[in-house]
Every structure is written in structure tokens, then in C-alpha cells.
Amino acid sequence: MQQRFLAIALSFVLCGASTTGLACGPGTVALIQRMVTTQEPPRYRCGSEFNEMLARAQKKDWKGALAAYESHLAGLGKWEAGSANVSETFAYLRRMSQAR
Questions:
Q1: 58: left (phi over 0), alpha (psi -120 to 50) or beta
Q2: What CA–CA distance (Å, rounded) separates 91 from 66?
Q3: Residue 11 belongs to a domain
């Protein structure tokens, strides 16, 4: 009985963590692209710099978004540094900031 309860509780925790965790990992470029079409960017538990990056992307302030993403990676986002997601996100933000 305890194992069953523990399995159910763990599944709820993992489902709840995955909704905020998805924003802080792979797929950041797709998330940024969705921000451009929203009225107000959502808030994720990825740190204030990550949320600032999304808010600036929503306003199409690409240089500000790039700076906020760099700050995010220097702080809470260090665990992701060097990943393919980070490389893709940097390339996208740089491309968008140079196009403006």
C-alpha cells in the first residue's frame, strides 16, 4: 500500500515539475518564438533572468533578451551551459538581435 501511494505521489510531483522544467531545458527557442505572439509572458521557476529574457523577447527587445539569457546562464542556468539547447538559443537570439 505504501509503495502504491509513493508511486502516485511521485507521479504528481514529476508532472508538476515537468511543466515548469520544460521551460528551463530543451526547447527554449520554441518557447521564445511563442512569446512573440502572447499578450503577457508566463512566469517560470527558472529564475528572474530567464523570465526577463522571455519578457524582452515578447517585446522584441532581442539585445535585452540576449543579455538576460547570458545572465541566466551565469546564475541558475549554469547547469545547462554547453548544451545543444544553449547553443541553439544563443544562435537564435544573436540572429534576431542582428536582424533588428
A1: alpha
A2: 10
A3: no
| pLDDT tens-place string over residues 52-87 | 999 999 999 999 999 999 999 998 888 888 899 999
Domain with 76 in it: 22-99
Asked if 2 and 62 touch (Cβ cutoff 8 Å), the reply is: no
Examine the pLDDT at 10 and tell me if it is beyond 70: no
With respect to residue 4, please indicate whether it lies within any of the assigned structural domains. Answer: no
Query: How far apart are the C-alpha atoms of 57 and 54, rounded to whole Å?
Result: 5
Assess if residue 61 is contained within a domain: yes
**Total structural domains in the chain?**
1
At 21, which helix (H) or strand (E)?
helix 2-21
Burial (CB count within 10 angstroms: exposed 0-12, middle 13-18, buried 19+), residue 9: exposed
Three cell numbers written together for 21: 522544467
- The pTM of the full predicted model, rounded to 2 decimals, is 0.73
Q: Residue 39: inside a domain, yes or no?
A: yes
